[in-house]
Amino acid sequence: MSSVDTDLxxxxxxxxxxxxxxxxxxxxxxLLFLTAYLATxxxxxxxxxxxxxxxxxxxxxxxxxxxxxxxxxxxxGAFFVSDALHRYQRQRPLSPSEKKKKQAVNxxxxxxxxxxxxxxxxxxxxxxxxxxxxxxxxxxxxxxxSFCVVLAMEERELNSQQKGERLKHQFQQAFAGIAVxxxxxxxQQNHLDGSVDLEVPGKASNLKWAVPQGFAEFQNNGxxxxxxxxxxTVADADCIFHPGYFSAVxxxxxxxxxxxGNDHLWTMYQAPQLPYRNYFDAVAPCRIWAYISSAYEFxxxxxxxxxxxxxxxxxxxxxxxxxxxxGAWDGDVIAEDHHAFLKCFYYSALASVSSxxxxxxxxxxxxxIYLPVKSTSVSADTYWRxxxxxxxxxxxxAQGSSEFSYAVLAAxxxxxxxxxxxQCCSFYLKVGKVISKLFCMHLLPTCQGVGxxxxxxxxxxxxxxxxxxxxxxxxxxxxxxxxxxxxxxLAGAWILVxxxxxxxxxxxxxxxxxxxxxxxxxxxxxxxxxxWDAQDGGMAHGGFSQSLTAFVQTSIDxxxxxxxxxxxxxxxxxxxxxxxxxxxxxxxxYVTASKPAPATNFMSLCPKRQQPFSKPAPATxxxxxxxxxxxxxxKLFLDTAIEAPSSTTSSTASSPRSTPQPTERSxxxxxxxxxxPCFRL
Length: 681
Known about the structure:
alpha/beta, two-stranded antiparallel sheet, 20 helices, globular, disordered C terminus
């Protein structure tokens, strides 16, 4: 990774909270664009119907192509995931002698070459049982002995330090190291123009504190040798990574490191994320969001395999060196995942400028990992509270429109500060792709919906007919130009069911495949061996077929409820976010979403046990669960009532893994599958 020329303006550190005029204009861009579009529609309604038709035709076509292509890519991605999961299951397990040989090779390897995973779990008022479940799932992952876990707590949460210490005490033998970092309240964020603002409480400000704190702790303890060989993974408290995710990232990182160049230091990693852990218990607004989010994220990740552009989301990985040097997280940001991508993107462009190669070209890439991450949808104790919490979550997601403003501001700063010899078409082409991606996410659906509504009013006012369009679709009428039919049809002057049906079918098929591939397990399938495998959407076993139930549920939701639900949770939440960003930037209240308490009573993971995996009724209140592994050979009690060791510091790391070491049993003791995990802790 080349060093950055200090004489260049650090445009990647731009902020919409700066006091300069261009920053304020960029912050208002989403609202200004919507206002300008509404003015155009008003002009079309009152003075020029042609303007209304053409505008609606352009946006309808753009939205349809974007949604359809994303849905098709997500369907393709489902097959990629199915193939990746089958390949992972077919991997030949290492024999005891091969494992000893591998350990000997690792011992003889230079410490600076070994890949270490730094995993940070930012959380605020999360259920302790859920955090324990997430940590347990990490302990089931391949190569977990190379994991350094940071529990990123918030000082604003009462007794967060004690909660972190209890979890650390429970899992200190499971990883190379585990630390608790408590983010202080009231820190400040400095801007390039010299202005200063208080941090916005949330995931971004927590990560800004926890990542360097955790790295420093593990480096001081000798667990982490270098940031160049450390991969940082950020995850929400409810994210369950596939057991093979981290080893897959390590392989890709090592492969890039052995290739010429420094691509391994400029590559982020993203797996598709599916919020279906509680699918069958979720209310309609939450399921609808899950359909749209899953299709978009799945399609975006798949597009990376075909040269597309996609930004990181929720749970993702990147080189620690890149995160530290780019300063991936700012303390006054809400959409930390997209902001981390954008900041690393612009930093990679700035770092590419040198005396030998003056051209400014972004070097950042995102590598897809087709082993999905499982998470939950919003779930509270009552139906209406869940709907209210879903609204706050939708509004927080819509706050991502501020990243559109940031991307434009950083591009403007680059254009006005880079020397002419560094300006190149490649930079603006890649920036244009990123900004267009943000436009399609945060502005296109809202504007397209408003335009279609305006055209529908005209259509009803004139007796279900637009005054400039023929009363019927007869392309054989030679008196009307073909182009006239095309514009009227694309604008929605007639009720065209066919395009809507196509999108609905694609969305149903995509989400059914997501559930079928990653969640629904065959009745004759072996008992779940890991927490990731156990996440089946929450449907009780027995009774109706899970596949049939999922297909019917998805079909009803997408056909009858999607349009209704997206009005308050899509349109109004976006408009509210545009206003907030224009007036306050990201200085809004960060409201965390309620999540279901874990309710799984996990049995021993040894296949020799004949008891089938069972899932009892969900817990009805938070903090009442004591998740336990019962019986031998694996006995790990995750009792939230355990006393925490005394600690007076805000960030403490455990020592490297020491005795008692996990004792691996022979495959004959565990059962027929030698790959099955069976440990005694």
